[in-house]
Structures are given as C-alpha cells and as structure tokens.
Design brief:
alpha/beta, Rossmann fold, Cobalt-precorrin-4 Transmethylase, domain 1, five-stranded mixed sheet, four-stranded parallel sheet, 17% strand, globular
C-alpha cells in the first residue's frame, strides 16, 4: 500500500442519514423538485392527450437513486453543519438548476470555472462534499492532509469501476477507459487506475479512437503520433509499445452500452490476433460490465418509445450531462429531436432554442412544432429533476392554449 493509498483509507466519512435530518431533507427536496403533472402522467401509463397535443413520457426518466442520494446528502450537510463552512468539489450533478439550488444552500464550489475558493484554502473546520462523480485521489489526499470533514456522495456504480481499474493496476494491466477524458468521473477513475504507483490508463472516446489503438496493438506504429493523438487522455509515462501488451477495458458509467461493448469486442479481437488466440490472449485481456443500471434503463425505455409513432422528441437536461446527451443522440437518429436545458427554450410555436451535439452549442430552429395534431415524446437523463420535466410539458400545452388546471382536471 502506497503512502497516498494509506492516507485515503483514513479519510473521515460523515454520516448524515439520521431519521430526523432525512425527514427534514425529504420535505425540502420535494418542495424543490417534485412534480404533480409528472406523477399524474406516470400513473396514466405515460401518455397524456389534451386538445391537439399528445405527450408520451418514457417509462424510465429523470433522477436515479445515486443522484437522489447525492442531493439528499448535500441538503443534509447544509442542515447539520450550520456553524461551519461548506464546500463542494465541482458540480453535485450535471444539471445547472440543481447546482444553483446547491449554491443557494450556502455551499461553495472548489473546482472548475465557477470555483469560489481553492482546496488549499480549506481548514480543518471546513466540510467538503464529494459529488456523485467522485474525485481524484490526489485531491482527496490533500483534503485529508488539511483535516476537513468529508461528505462522500460518490455513486456506487462509479466505485464499482474504481474497484476494477485498481485490480487492473495490481495485475500489471493497463486500463483502457471508454469515456470522455475531461469528464469528472473519468478523471476520478483514471486516478484509481494508477493509484498503486504502477498502473497506467488510456482513454478512448470513439470507435475511431478504438480502431487506432487496435491497429497499434496488431502492428505497432509511430509512438510519437500515438501519444499526440491521445494527449491529455493517458497516464504519465504511457508507452503504447509496453502498456498495450496487457489491457483491461473499463468505462465511464454513463456511456452507451452498445458502444462500450463494441470497444471491448474490437480490442479483444486485436489482442487475440496479435497473440494468436488461446490462453495467452486470454491472460492479456479482460473486461467487466460496468455501465450504470439507471443509464441503461433510460436508454432502453427511450428505445422502446422510439418504436412508437411520434412527431418529435424533447430531451430535457444539462448540456454537459453525458447520459442525457446519449439520449439525444439516440433520438436524433430516428426523428426530430430537441435537447433543451429547460422550458424557457420552448420560446414559441415558431422558435425553439436547443443544444446541437455536433456544433456543441445552442442553436435556434424555426417552425419546429407542426401545426396539426401532434404527438411529442419526452425523456430526461438521470440528472434531471421532475419539476423541469413538468415545466417542459406545461409549456408544450401552453403553446397550444391549454393551461395546467386542464391537465390536472
């Protein structure tokens, strides 16, 4: 065990889940995020028709257990530690409205463009919340050194991936991580892939990246070109000629299952071809299924809904949410799909502002809403609260002259 690993093992964890605190937290969280309209729509089987508008809601959508737990613990920390400074390591989840609520509780950000302080500004009297994505081992070790208390909201599915990459490092296997190198979760996972002082990692995002790696596994290549292509997406000292000999594939938990499985299949095939198959190839490759269950449920539910007749799809959520972005990707392959942050983007029947996944920015589209009886699908990723889904539904009906009272009648 390295000195850093030993330090992490001693990090204090604060238990806030007492009955009294959680009862107060639940009341506050429900007041912020509950939706009467969404509950009615779910109870009606996911379909609501009024006037010329039919809305279909995916069977699985919105907050997952891990997100609910993270939010509950952040709210609980604000209630318990009223006489201490509270900080969070970045965003609690990838939803701007939820993060604004967290800021409103007096919790200050320590990481990113919106940072209000630095980790080195902490004292032993402060409380630090680790978000649902987790954080890297170096940051955690520094907080422990300072002596701040920690409220850890890291999702259990994320920690399952950490267990796998730690095992890879222990067995002298490089972790090839399917994910986004700049994403908080992938950064945290990558830090665990070398937390014992000898591990290495490589992050691949696309199947194009994967094919490039597979070609190097089979035939070798230009090392300098390889390292330049994956700049910022590999461990220090990574050498493709050495560290692609034995590989364990892991993933960011919010990726598309089918794509992660294809990454696994292609890398396995490359290693088998290089090693001639048999026992040797088996010893040089491993993978585990670590896609988040909630992510998969939301993708499966949308896939089922896309088999139904709809005119367009609305995806609600934060633009930097990986699992929400994948829902928008799925939708746009089959029908007009609009990825919106909130209901304010539904400006009129003639104009919508939505996020373009390819241009990576908000764009405007005109004449998006058909002027005839219309069926609209709605879904949301695991970081989107029900109240934002309700706002979008209400706005869709409002654009057709139908008020909330009529929907609840």
């Amino acid at each position: 065990m390295t000195e850093q690993t030993a330090t992490l093992a001693k990090i204090p964890r604060v238990n806030l889940r007492t009955p009294a605190v959680m009862a107060a937290v639940q009341a506050q969280v429900e007041s912020h995020y509950r939706s009467e309209v969404v509950e009615k729509l779910r109870a009606a089987g996911g379909t609501l028709s009024k006037g010329d508008v039919t809305v279909k809601l995916a069977k699985q959508f919105g907050f997952c257990y891990g997100v609910e737990r993270a939010i509950d613990l952040a709210y609980a920390a604000a209630k318990v530690f009223t006489d201490r400074r509270l900080f969070i390591l970045g965003e609690i989840i990838h939803n701007p409205e939820v993060n604004e609520q967290i800021r409103a509780l007096g919790i200050k950000n320590l990481i990113g463009q919106n940072a209000e302080a630095r980790v080195d500004d902490l004292t032993a009297k402060d409380v630090v919340i680790v978000p649902a994505f987790g954080t890297d081992v170096t940051t955690l070790a520094r907080i422990k050194e300072i002596g701040s208390d920690i409220v850890d909201t890291t999702c259990g599915d994320v920690m399952s991936v950490w267990k796998r990459v730690r095992q890879n490092a222990q067995d002298d296997m490089t972790s090839v991580i399917h994910g986004k190198a700049a994403h908080e979760e992938t950064k945290a996972t990558a830090s665990r892939a070398m937390s014992n002082g000898k591990g290495h990692y490589l992050v691949v995002l696309t199947l194009g990246d994967t094919d490039y790696v597979c070609d190097y596994i089979r035939h070798g290549g230009d090392k300098r070109e390889f390292l330049e292509r994956f700049r910022g997406a590999h461990s220090a000292g990574f050498d493709p000629e050495i560290h692609l000999r034995r590989v364990g594939v892991a993933n960011q938990t919010t990726m598309m299952r089918g794509e992660t499985e294809e990454v696994q299949r292609r890398i396995m095939a490359a290693i088998k071809e290089r090693d001639g198959g048999g026992e040797t190839a088996g010893q040089n490759y491993r993978f585990f299924d670590t896609i988040c269950g909630a992510t998969q449920e939301r993708q499966d539910a949308l896939r089922m809904m896309l088999d139904e007749s709809m005119d367009l799809l609305i995806v609600v959520g934060g633009y930097n949410s990986s699992n929400t972005s994948h829902l928008a990707e799925m939708g746009e392959q089959q029908l007009p799909t609009y990825f919106i942050r909130n209901a304010s983007r539904l400006e009129s029947r003639e104009r919508i502002t939505h996020y373009d996944l390819h241009e990576k920015k908000e764009i405007n589209t005109r004449d998006w809403l058909p002027r005839r009886p219309v069926t609209i699908g709605i879904t949301a990723g695991a970081s989107c609260p029900n109240n934002l889904i309700e706002d979008a539904i209400l706005r869709l009906y409002e654009l057709h002259g139908i008020a909330k009272a009529e929907l609840l009648a």
